[in-house]
Amino acid sequence: MQEKTSTLADIYHKLDGRRGQVLDRARRCAELTIPALLPPIGSDQNTPLETPWQSFGARALNTLAAKLLLTMFPPNSPFWKLDVDPATVEKLRQKLGEDGLKTLIEEDMGAMEQTMLKYIEASPFRSVAFKIVRQCLACGDVLIEMPPEGGINYFTLNQYVVRRSPRGKLLEVIIQEQLDISEVPETHKDVAKAKKKDDLIEMYSGYILRDGQWHFKQEIAGKTVGEEVRFPEALCPVFPLPWILNAGEHHGRGHIEEHIGDFNSLESFWQALTEGGLNMARILYLENPNGSIDGKEIETAPNGTVITGSPEDIAVLQVEKYPDLKFALECAIRLEDRLSRAFLLHESVQRQGERVTAEEIRYMAQELEDALGGQYSHFAQNFQLPVVNRIMWQMRKAGKLPTLPASVTPTITTGFEALGRGHDLARLKGFLMDIAEFSPEILNTWLNADNVISRMGTARGVDMKGMVKSPEQVQQEMAQAKQDALMAQVAGPIANQGTKGIVDAANSQGE
User: Fold this and answer.
1) Between vectors from CA 508 to CA 504 and to CA 511, what angle results, nearest 5°?
2) Does residue 504 surpass a pLDDT of 60?
3) In the chain, how many domains are there?
């Protein structure tokens, strides 16, 4: 616990001293992918940034970030569901009956989920979430902010410091922001007067965990801005999102850092290939000083001109390094192939060959997705679930969502759970295809169609309640169809016989 006399600026600079190597590693990872994600100290939009020798890092980073975003936050579909604990479900069943319970859980909670989804889609949540995931992948850590008034924001690694317990529990978060003079509150105008018009003023926002509550306050020049606010531990407006958090560390490490060796080698190879290729592309002529040809005449002669001289007097300088550059190119291609697998790029799925089956591609894609299975679980607990809780809190505060009892909690339904459902669906489809190849009659004779349909719907993540007919309903409809067919068979001859009788009677009267 920090001393009570310490200002937020003191705490920030103390923790900042432990963050130097973290920032250096993160900046190196950004240099190899997208340098603007974490620019050097003191840089702004006019500062020229380091340009990588290859664009593979940026493409790999954007591709993996887009895939993670699509998996965690599928468009127009809730990535969570509201669950009620079993004890409460049983009490509600006894009180409301089966129909009332079904209406409450399926319809009312489903309506609330759709209301929350519309709230999310109407905000810039998805675009900000993409930037958050990119920061997490490249720099290893990003701080997410969801203020009470709504919306979502983030801070890069050079804007905040955190302190954790040895077991990884978050204890302190200090944010450093730059304010324009016009944004300084009236109570701190004396600080603004001492500054020039174009100067920026530092403001520190601190979240400190004490007695199971987050204590929030802001300071400018060591003076508190406004009053201290408290939040429940589970509803802190800010929460850091590390990619990998090792034991005893305060900040996370990114996915780029886990493959930094390959990225460094790839950068070196492409630098050598680029510089070597430029040297090989240069055209330089060597002139024999004792020859009869004037070099200036060669330089200024139009195309097709006949010049008197010997070919030995003029030679073209050649860089005999093609075998070396070819070896460097092969190494770069192998490095890109390894990194493509680590970042789930499309070309890593299909091997080089004349005949590659679709089943092989599906299998390899599934294997690559499994490699990130642990991160899906990590993001579900440290990103998706806090986001849902904060959105529910924001909507309740704005009067757009009723207060739910403690027995109703959100459960994440994407990511690792969706990955597991995909495995179930692939195994089920393979099983049905094997049976169909062996004997198609078995499908109709030995398999329960309703059970197969329910399992495939569950594997797809579709709510099957009320969608599939029960076996009793199918039997009733089949019996009714047979009865209707039998009635039609009986009614046909009777109708024909009645018509024939009428015709005979009319003929007899005419005679």
Assistant:
1) 140
2) no
3) 4
Whether 176 and 241 share a structural domain: yes
CA distance 81 to 100: 19
Single out the residue of 15, 252, 269 nearest to residue 138, CA to CA: 252
SS3 of 405, please? coil
With a threshold of 0.90, does the pTM exceed it?
A: no
The pLDDT tens digits of the residues spanning 22-77 come to: 999 999 999 999 999 999 988 888 889 989 999 999 999 999 998 888 878 888 77
Three-class SS of 174-224: EEEEEEEHHHCCHHHHHHHHCCCCCCEEEEEEEEEEECCEEEEEEEECCEE
Structural domain boundaries enclosing 356: 269-370
Residue 160's SS3 state is strand
The reply to whether 282 and 300 lie within a common domain is: yes
Query: Does any domain span residue 376?
Result: no
Torsions phi, psi for 250 (to 5 deg): -95, -30
Under 8 Å between Cβ of 126 and 152: no
Domain membership flag for residue 443: yes
pLDDT score recorded for residue 3: 46
Supply the DSSP symbol for 49: P
* Amino acid letter, residue 321: K
* DSSP state for residue 244 in the 8-state scheme: B
Q: Which residue has the higher pLDDT, 509 or 72?
A: 72
Residue 176 lies in a domain: yes
Residue 498: alpha-carbon gap to chain centroid: 74
Contact criterion met (CB below 8 Å) for 22 and 119 = no
* Bridge partner residues of 275 (DSSP): none
Among 11-15, 166-170, 429-433, which is the least confidently predicted range? 429-433
* Residues 491-505, mean pLDDT to the nearest whole number: 55
Residue 501 lies in a domain: yes
